[in-house]
Write a structure and sequence with these properties.
Length: about 200
């Protein structure tokens, strides 16, 4: 069960956004990721709880940020309920999309798991993005391509690192994501600072 810490920063101006302390593990029905987010000063600022089924679909998502809460799952596309900080108003949403995305590294692992691309293959995917600070939902389209998959020797045996090229279809902006098992090694705005045990490998 990998445990560790990511540092998060604005991918454009590199302003520190804080840290994400996480643990994750495959289970009998899929994969689960839980984390707590802190500010640069160390204060609590949110949490992520994401569970996938064996096909990589989100069967349960719960996000907290800025007093807001979102609960969602894959149901007729993706369906969610967003609750305001007072807890008095809740709005429901449903979009014909493949999955959720957001600022947490969990969503990058989840997307790679969902798509299961082979080297040199690419596909288009539609997300509902839920981003800080208020988790407002918006629909985004991306193209994901697996450009390289390479095994690296480690003390615990070979570690396969996959390199993805992700393109935003509305702006054409491209970036690279490196993933090993269920851990993001590098991505825009994300740096892996600490990892207590090796990444898990999926079947």
């Amino acid at each position: 069960m990998p445990r560790g810490r990511y540092s998060l920063h604005d991918p454009h101006d590199h302003t520190p956004l804080g840290e994400e302390h996480f643990q994750c593990a495959p289970g009998p029905s899929g994969w689960r990721y839980v984390s707590r987010l802190t500010t640069p000063a160390g204060d609590q600022r949110g949490s992520v709880d994401l569970a996938l089924d064996d096909l990589g679909r989100p069967i349960r998502l719960e996000l907290h940020a800025g007093g807001w809460q979102v609960r969602g799952a894959a149901l007729d596309g993706v369906t969610w309920v967003r609750t305001d900080p007072t807890g008095t108003h809740a709005t429901e949403g449903n979009v014909r999309a493949h999955a959720f995305t957001g600022t947490s590294p969990a969503f990058l692992v989840a997307t790679a798991r969902l798509l299961r691309l082979t080297p040199s293959s690419a596909t288009r995917v539609r997300f509902v993005a839920l981003t800080d600070p208020v988790l407002a939902p918006r629909t985004v389209d991306q193209s994901w391509a697996l450009v390289n998959s390479e095994a690296h020797a480690t003390d615990n045996g070979p570690l396969t690192v996959e390199e993805y090229q992700v393109s935003a279809l509305d702006t054409g902006e491209q970036h690279t994501v490196h993933i090993a098992g269920d851990v993001v090694l590098a991505a825009p705005g994300i740096e892996l600072e600490d990892l207590e045990s090796p990444p898990s490998t999926f079947r």
